Amino acid sequence: MKGRMGLNTRDLAYFHDLVELKNYTEVANKFSVSQPTITVAIKRLENEFGAQLIKRDYIHNRLVVTRAGVLLFQRAQQILQSLDLAYSEVQNADSSMIRFGLPPIIGTMWFPLIAQELLNKGLLSHIQSIEAGSDQLLEKLKQGKIDVALLGSIRPLQEKKLDTFLLAVHPFRVVVSRKHSLVSKKHISFAELKGERFVTFTNNFVHPQALASYSKYAGFRPQIAFSTPTLSLIKELVNADLGISLLVDDAVKPQDHLCCLELDDPLPERFNMSLVVRKNFLPNKIQKEFISILFELKGLIETKDC
C-alpha cells in the first residue's frame, strides 16, 4: 500500500516494532520475514525522509533511536492505529451483527430494561455482546473492535475520539451483610471503614477507582480481601460476612439480603453510565435502530428510580 510520497505502511510497521523491541531478529520473526527484509525497510524509510532513524551503539551492543526516529515512531503509531481502525470498520460495514460492549454490572442492572423491546424488534439476535470492564471496552471501542458500548465511569466521560451520551448517574453505597456490626447504621463516613476487609471488582472495572478515591480521602489504604469480575460472587462473599464492598446502589436487590449504607463524604465520584460511539462512526440501519433503543434507557432508568 503506497502513500502520497510512495510510503509503504508495512515498512512503518517494521520500524514501529523495531523501536519497541530494539532487535532486528525479533521483529523479523514476528512478521515471518528475513532479517535483511527489516534492514532494507528501515533504509527505505531513511531515504524517504532523508534522515537517520536508527543508530547502532557498538560499545553497548544496542540500537539507538534518533530524534528523527522518535518523531516518526509517534506518527507511525497514529497511522497504524488509524489503518487498523479503517480495516475493521470497512470489513464490518455491511455486517448484520452489532458488536456491543457491555460491562457485566450494567448488563445485570439496566440492560434488561430494553431487552424485551430489542427482542420484539428482532434485534436481540443481532447483538454480539462483548463483556468486560469499562476500561477494557473503552480501548476496544477506540480500536474499532466493537461498534457501540455502555460504559461506566466515576466522572462523566470526555474522550476526543468518542461521542459520549450520559444516560444515568447513581451514587456508590457501602454494602455489608446483615450480620455485620455496621448494619444498624444508615449513614457512614468512609474513615469509619479503616481496618475493614473489602471485596471488590478487578482493576479494569470502575468500582476499584471509586474505592481508591474514597480511601484516599479518608486517609487509609483499603485492605482487599478478594477481587473478582463477577458481581454475584461479590454479593455472596459479602453476604457470608467475609468482607464489605463499595457498589453502585442499583446493584443490590432486596433478594440479596444485604444492607446498603449511604456515604456522608463530599466526593464527586458517582457511577456514570454513558452510551459511547466513535466520532464519525457511520452506523448501518440495524445499528441505528439499536442505538436509538439504547437512548431510551435514560427515560426508563429515571422512571424506575422515581
TrEMBL record:
Gene3D superfamilies tied to this protein: 3.40.190.290, Winged helix-like DNA-binding domain superfamily/Winged helix DNA-binding domain
One Pfam family from the record: LysR_substrate
SUPFAM superfamilies the UniProt entry points to: Periplasmic binding protein-like II, Winged helix' DNA-binding domain
Keywords, ordered alphabetically: DNA-binding, Transcription, Transcription regulation
UniProt cross-references to PROSITE patterns, sorted A to Z: HTH_LYSR
Domain HTH lysR-type: start-end pairs: 7-66
Top-level lineage group: Bacteria
GO MF entries: DNA binding; DNA-binding transcription factor activity
GO CC terms in record: cytosol
Coiled-coil portions: none
Similarity-based family: Belongs to the LysR transcriptional regulatory family.
Protein name: Malolactic regulator
Lineage: Bacteria, Bacillati, Bacillota, Bacilli, Lactobacillales
